[in-house]
Amino acid sequence: MNPPLILLTGATGFIASHTWLALQAAGYRVLGIDNFSNSSPEVLTRLKTLGGMTPDFIRADVCDAAAIDTVFAREPIAAVVHFAAFKAVGESAAKPLAYYANNLSGLFTVCQAMERHHCQALVFSSSATVYGKPEQLPIREDAALSATNPYGATKLMSETVLRDLQAADPSWAIATLRYFNPVGAHESGLIGEDPRGTPNNVMPFISQVAIGKRARLSIFGNDYDTADGTGVRDYIHVSDLAEGHVAALRYLLAGKGSIVANLGTGQGSSVLELVRAFEQASGRSVPFEIAPRRPGDIDACYADPARAHELLGWRATRDLQTMCADSWRWQNLNPNGLAG
Ligand code: UD1
Predict the structure, then answer these.
(1) How far apart are CA 317 and CA 1, in angstroms?
(2) Burial class of residue 214 (count of CB atoms within 10 Å of its CB; 0-12, 13-18, 19+)
């Protein structure tokens, strides 16, 4: 019998491309779809090299109901891992309508196609952003939820939709995975995060400073309520995150029910600690300046990852040094990203 077929949406993106490899390594068949709105077709070439087979891929937009229906009509799909979404916080404040339209209608289109085709196992990409300004650290899944920007609101709304869907029809099995701060890259350096334009997130920015594409990092605030005054986050290696998706999928397909789980290490690191770790891993210096706080940023955010360990048998294993070393290898091998 053929192994189960898993549909990945947003398949050529940063986290999805790593998950693609992890699923293949775990013995699943993978069908990927993407519209390349924030990724490059070159990822497919890299996946072919890494996975040893031509990736099964269809170019499609998750908001295009007819196209998604065609994907489902091809052959039975056992489960969907839905990554496809816009994800830049700042851009979401400038273009709220685009964010609500894309992120919500993508989810609706995928779930409606799943219902039509009797596929009811879904892994959903959520984010620690749904905890807003956390009242307690480390953050447990039962913490209060809120949104501080339209991007975060789309994740919160999506979680609500999925909760209602599951409550209305318990035959749905849904894993809602709340990612902390994904960084790092595949150990080969062949795939990684490939931001267009100026990176919003700190790790790609640091990498571009280290390689000389940018003069210095602006550290957004050194007067936070943290040990060294800079913001503290739970950085997690993208390969650990990818393995978390495999564990969640196994849970769903084993009929264990639905789950909401944090995917983080449980370990907070400050921006200054990250800069030092990167300098050590790369052997390059990362000049920085202290700049004003970035609006909407919080002091500290890190996970209590106990539930994922208890229920999924998963925990992150790669440390900050490995995250930095792998980010650097990727940056060094692909100085201009995949377009260059
Ligand atoms: C943001 C999003 C989060 C998303 C995550 C990963 C919010 C509020 N934030 O998290 O939803 O999941 O990205 O994509 O929803 N920093 C600098 N200089 C920089 C960039 C960042 O000092 O040039 C600092 C920030 O102030 C923060 C830390 O680095 O303390 C991490 O920032 P970033 O990588 O942007 O992630 P978050 O804001 O935590």
Answers:
(1) 33
(2) middle
Structure confidence at residue 60 (pLDDT): 98
| Most informative mutation of 225, 272, 294 for ligand 1 (most atoms within 8 A of CB) | 294
Residue with token string 């990927």: 32
CA 179 to ligand 1: nearest atom: 12
Residue-level pLDDT at 340: 55
Alpha-carbon span 33 to 10, nearest angstrom: 6
| Strand-pair category, 269-270 with 232-233 | antiparallel
> Model's pTM, two decimal places?
0.98
Q: Which residues of the chain have pLDDT under 50?
A: none
C-alpha closest to that of 127 among 265, 263, 314? 263
Phi, psi dihedral angles at 36 (to 5 degrees): 60, 25
- Domains, the chain, ordered by start: 5-183+235-265 (3.40.50.720)
Which tens digit of pLDDT belongs to each residue from 16-34?
Answer: 999 999 999 999 999 999 9
Q: At what angle do helices 96-116 and 65-74 cross, to 10 degrees?
A: 30
271 C-alpha vs ligand 1 centroid, how far in Å? 10
Catalytic residue positions, numbered: 151
Instruction: Tell whether ligand 1 has an atom less than 6 A from the beta carbon of residue 231.
Output: yes
Determine the atom of ligand 1 nearest the C-alpha atom of 180: 12
* Residue whose CA is at the smallest distance from ligand 1 atom 22: 219
